[in-house]
Write a structure and sequence with these properties.
The chain is mainly alpha-helical and 325 residues long. The protein has 14 helices and no strands.
Length: 325
């Protein structure tokens, strides 16, 4: 998104795009979808928000629906294993490439650099994302540049589209770690087996688009197409409400020196979180010499402006062919 929106199309300046990422990290819900909605809203108002949201979410939803239909019909997803072997090394390269671009835009002073290092250390020590982001913002703001969220979810009946809508509405609005919450609400609640949940997460990871389309897969397993549509609407609806509500505050934040410093600190914290993601992904994705080589080649190609989507497809094909293990 950064490459297409900032560098290739010039729709936003690097600092503007980074501000949108910082804002998306501060509100609950699927961050990638929220950034797409912010961009659409910035470019063309509420019509842009709706069009960008539909364009970002719907292809993934339709693809996941097809996968869920095949899963129920045949009972397995054999190609997913190969895809999940081939895609991660390329993902590591994409994340590192994005980290470099974001870091240059966010870390503009020694103080911001120190905050970034402290944020990385805090996250590696187990501090949750929101305290890291807020802490970075407060440190930068207090420096004079002028516990983790939790909630309970009500029990709902998951055998209907309405019940699935309410369940996933709560997930989308609460900022939960998706896998942990779904495991507690669906597996322990007896609605899915552990294997079905893992397959649902794998589909969300392996298909293009937002990972939260896992909800589409789960909804289909529990109540067919109506359940899939209810779950999808529930998990993405909060983003369509929270983004325009928070976007109205961004110009005020950007014009206030204190608030601007706070957002700078949040942006640095977001870069730090991305750095930790790169480290964690590398530990699990780069487990063989060929995987490391694939990641390095992908990074070189990204620097030479080869599209990330093509590299992800290439990684998936190599994984399906058994060449990446």
């Amino acid at each position: 998104m950064e490459r297409e929106i900032v560098r290739d199309r010039g729709w936003l300046a690097p600092s503007e795009f980074l501000d949108l990422i910082g804002a998306a990290n501060l509100i609950p819900g699927p961050n990638s979808t929220e950034v797409a909605l912010y961009v659409g809203l910035r470019r063309a108002g509420w019509r842009g928000l709706l069009v960008s949201g539909a364009g970002f979410v719907m292809p993934a939803v339709l693809l996941v629906l097809a996968c869920a239909w095949a899963y129920q019909r045949y009972g397995a997803l054999p190609p997913v294993e190969g895809v999940l072997r081939g895609v991660p090394p390329v993902v590591v390269a994409v994340v590192v490439h994005a980290l470099w671009a974001f870091g240059k835009a966010a870390i503009r002073s020694p103080l911001l650099g120190l905050v970034a290092v402290a944020a990385v250390a805090a996250r590696l020590a187990g501090v949750s994302e929101i305290p890291v982001l807020l802490g970075g913002g407060l440190i930068v703001m207090i420096a004079g540049q002028a516990g983790p969220r939790s909630a309970r979810v009500a029990s709902v009946e998951l055998t209907t589209a309405v019940g699935l809508f309410l369940f996933f509405l709560t997930v989308g609005a609460s900022g939960y770690v998706l896998l942990a919450f779904l495991e507690g609400g669906l597996v322990r609640g007896g609605w899915l087996t552990q294997r079905q949940l893992l397959d649902a997460i794998a589909i969300g990871q392996a298909t293009p688009g937002p990972v939260f389309t896992t909800a589409t897969f789960v909804g289909y397993l529990l109540d067919g197409v109506p359940g899939a549509l209810g779950a999808t609407a529930g998990i993405f609806l909060p983003a369509f409400v929270l983004v325009p509500a928070s976007a109205a505050l961004l110009p005020r934040v950007q014009s206030s020196p204190a608030a601007r410093s706070f957002l700078d600190g949040v942006n640095v914290g977001a870069v730090a979180l991305l750095a930790v993601v790169a480290v964690e992904l590398s530990r699990t994705a780069l487990v063989s010499p060929i995987g490391i080589a694939a990641a390095l080649v992908a990074l070189v190609l990204l620097l030479r402006r080869v599209g990330a989507a093509w590299l992800l497809v290439a990684g998936a094909v190599l994984g399906l062919a058994g060449l990446l293990r």
